[in-house]
Amino acid sequence: FAEFGGYFQSTTFEDEVRAAASQGKTVTFYDSNSGKPLFVAPIGRSVDEFIDESKYHGWPSFRDQEVVWDNVRVLKSSGETVSVDGTHLGHNLPSKDRRNRYCINLVSVAGNPV
Description:
Blueprint: H1 13-22, E1 27-30, E2 37-41, H2 47-57, E3 61-62, E4 72-74, E5 80-83, E6 88-92, E7 102-104
Antiparallel strand pairs: 1-2, 3-7, 4-5, 5-6, 6-7
């Protein structure tokens, strides 16, 4: 079950990401069940690009370089994106240029580190 598109905009998501970026830092997003790191953003793009893409698609949207691959898997049959511990995270919805884009439910990556 996916959270409603745009839900993350009613949270402190943007403020927290922008605050970190203003200090030259990235934000790590943790599995809400296991506490393992899943995504680190923004990497390879500006904070504005990360926020704008997330708003456009309705969910926090990560690119390949922002995925912690030791802890994330994408099911080939459906594009469903899950943690190695089984948490449903969202889906890979490639962009028009065929680059992977992982639209992720904020509630699934709102955990605290282990």
